[in-house]
Specification:
Blueprint (H helix, E strand, L loop, with lengths): L2 H7 L4 H11 L2 H17 L2 H29 L1 H24 L4 H14 L3 H12 L3 H32 L4 H17 L25 H30 L6 H21 L6 H16 L8 H29 L5 H30 L1 H21 L6 H4 L6
């Protein structure tokens, strides 16, 4: 089963850049919650903590494709080394501003700068995989591995940062993130042998906006609704556990969701599929939409955890196939920017899903929050199915209207 993974890690340099990338992108599982725990502990305000975290995540979502475009033109190291220095400096300033009780506006400014310079390390690593793999099977396995790595972080990251911040030191999550991104960057960006090639001047046929490609644009919309599903599920699960008088058990249900995704990611990368990736994308998104509906009918937390596990089994395949579709449509010299749009779409979707489901929960109850998750993913699956022919690389000819 694991021979496919052995094969991709036999490619020179892949183990080194994948391991370094795993360390460098640890902040995606630490910083959001770390900021909330630190700001709330120091100010006593959950509202301010939430707004600061939202400022960080919004800036990150907006900047990811912009950074990706510059990386494609100038290279990962030339853009991300100075960006990482600014990111670490901004987080350090945020800590000082809060501790010294300086003007609160500086907290939001620091959070925005930190979010705007953290980048999408996952997109950088996937771009390296796209550059060094030679077959679709190798790329599917590589993207599966990266999805598994992401899930490992999301399973362990929140638990680690919560334990450290509550038991030891409030800013532990932020400090750990700074250490991780510094070490990861020092390990990743000097690896020139696997860095994707750059071209400051592109052929006229490939200049312009990546989203000018209809297939990429529709895939990004699909990932937006996937993000809405994620955000709604997170908030609804916490509210549902609280309604059952077992708020602490929310973590078990959410862990079941992540565990299902992790297992599916491992299995997906080990299978040699015959169906085109665009059809697998539609099938995975449809299964995720279908399995999201029973969540609102779970009578208790154990049943909810089982339902969450089943939903999780469809998450990694949807993300993997969606990434593969975007990779197959994007010109190689715009790969990082194209992949960064996926994380941006999911990030915006999570923010909107969290907010909309919160309104439903306040008005109608916790289980109705899952309605947002089910409806959003159903809309996303319909878009992916209806647009499936646009995901065919031959029809798009890997050209972006520029």
């Amino acid at each position: 089963m694991f021979s496919a993974y052995r094969d991709i890690f036999r490619i020179p340099g892949t183990l080194k850049f994948s391991a370094a990338g795993l360390i460098a992108r640890l902040p995606i599982a630490l910083l959001g919650l770390g900021l909330v725990l630190f700001i709330q502990e120091e100010t006593g305000s959950y509202a301010q903590a939430g707004v600061v975290a939202a400022t960080f995540m919004t800036a990150q979502a907006i900047s990811n494709p912009l950074l990706g475009k510059q990386i494609d033109r100038h290279g990962q190291a030339k853009i991300m080394v100075p960006a990482t220095i600014i990111h670490v400096t901004a987080l350090t300033c945020l800590l000082l501003v809060v501790y010294l009780r300086l003007w609160p506006g500086l907290v939001f400014a620091s959070a925005a700068i930190a979010g705007g310079t953290v980048g999408s390390v996952g997109a950088l690593v996937r771009a390296r995989w796209a550059a060094v793999t030679k077959t679709q099977k190798e790329l599917d396995t590589a993207f599966s591995w990266e999805a598994v790595a992401d899930e490992l972080m999301f399973v362990s990251g929140p638990a680690i940062v919560t334990a450290l911040a509550t038991a030891l030191w409030a800013p532990s999550g932020i400090v750990l993130s700074v250490v991780a991104v510094t070490i990861g960057s020092l390990l990743l960006y000097p690896q020139k042998a696997t860095e994707p090639p750059t071209s400051k001047r592109e052929p006229r046929a490939t200049r312009g906006k990546v989203l000018g490609n209809p297939g990429i644009l529709l895939a990004v919309f699909g990932h937006f609704f996937l993000g809405v599903n994620f955000g709604a599920i997170d908030v609804s699960t916490i509210a549902s556990a609280e309604e059952h008088g077992m708020k602490s058990a929310a973590g078990i249900a959410l862990a079941a969701h992540a565990f299902g995704s992790l297992i599916a990611g491992i299995a997906y990368g080990a299978v040699n599929f015959r169906a085109p990736v665009r059809l697998r994308y539609a099938a995975a998104a449809g299964a995720l939409a279908l399995l999201s509906w029973p969540l609102m009918f779970a009578p208790n937390i154990p049943v909810l955890a089982v339902f969450m596990l089943l939903v999780g089994l469809t998450v990694s395949p949807t993300i993997i196939t969606g990434s593969s579709v975007v990779q197959s449509l994007a010109p190689p010299k715009r790969m990082t920017e194209a992949l960064a749009w996926i994380s941006t779409a999911i990030g915006f979707g999570i923010a909107i899903g969290s907010a909309v489901s919160g309104v439903f929960i306040d008005r109608y109850g916790a289980h109705e929050g899952y309605l947002v998750a089910a409806v959003s993913m159903t809309v996303g699956a319909i878009i992916i199915l209806a647009a499936n022919r646009a995901f065919e690389p031959q029809k798009q000819q890997r050209v972006v209207l520029s």
